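Reopening closed ticket. The problem is back. First fold of the pair:
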Amino acid sequence: MVIMGRVTGPYGVGGWIKVFPYTEYVNGLLDYPDWWLGSEGGKWHKFKVIEGGVHGSVLLASLERCADRDAAARLKGLKIAIPRRLLPALPESGEEGYYWSDLIGLAVINLQGEALGKVAGLLETGANDVLQVRNPGETERLIPFIDQVIIKVDLAAGRITADWGLDY
């Protein structure tokens, strides 16, 4: 399963949910008629998407078996995933981009070989994506995911090399 977003809460009283997508475009998840909701390492449950739309930077969706606000509220915090076999294949070289879920958990080191932490998440800022890098006992680092900063993404080795200092 490739995690493509998360449910942030209910929307209205008719059972709609608000979704924070991890896709390049806010409405990218609407390309898939079925979503699997659950948690990483947990059980996934398939939901048919009845209807959806964009509201600012948030995706709104109506799902089967989710008829009222209480049902929608129970989905809050769940991840939304799509089976990898249903997604377009991306080369490991990154020439066509990366799935955010493939970057989460990768170790980040700088050009001096110093560990900056692990990718805990990504943010979409409009100008560029930003890696949220956490190291136990330290504050979170926000590292722009741009060519000038990200030197190499090595999915096989589980590592990202960045031109970023420990003191940034």
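Second fold of the pair, where the issue appears:
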Amino acid sequence: MSTTFTIKKDFMSSSGNNFFDDFKSYLPTNEQLCRSSAERVIGEHKKDYVMSNFSELLEEMQEEIYKSYLKEQEVSGQKVIDEQIDKFGKINFSDVDKFLMSIFQSRKSRAGKAFEFIIRELFIRAGVPFSEQITVDGAKPDFVMPSAEYFEERPLDCMLFTAKRTLRERWRQVVTEANKSYSYFLATLDEKVTESQLKQAATHKLYIVVPAQIKESNPVYSSSYNVLSFEQFFEIHLKPALNRWAS
């Protein structure tokens, strides 16, 4: 059956649900994609291996999840379009345009959340203790290490860790949240944080954590003491803390 593009107000169903809602319902969640990716990328590797190869595993999982998402997106998108043609016999071009725009915006949002899910999954595989969704002085870091209970007793001995794939529109928010008396670490894939911003971050006791390849290939990052690779974060900060927390 051929597809006809026309102006048709009743393309949306009377219940108010559009086909982007159906599209989203067919897609696997970020968490599902992340876990299946971890099974393929990490496999049976132990905790020490995950810590020592965190940067590489993170980048492999990023690529794996993106490829999986594109496949799922095509299958789900085609299914929704076929269903709408079956139901209405034609597709309104303006609705298709909105549909594609919604997919684009959703994909950007999912990419940011996927980064957080990847780090969470790798932390679990590496045996890193943490609590989530803990409010600290009005801020809500993604991870509080080692736990919410420990933070209640010894907040100055804890680490706050947040993941933001890009920082371009959130730098002020991040610096404000980090201006506390705690060890604050920000993981990102953003390669465009300036030398001035890194100095500002240092004055607010904020470390930037990036994959090793990004740190090594960026002269500004490689010369900044408060920019760490994930492996440096583990060796310099987390492993000594794990020993303290266990005592």
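Update: turned out to be a display glitch only; the data is intact. The first strand starts at residue 5 and ends at 6. The radius of gyration is 22 Å. Please close again.
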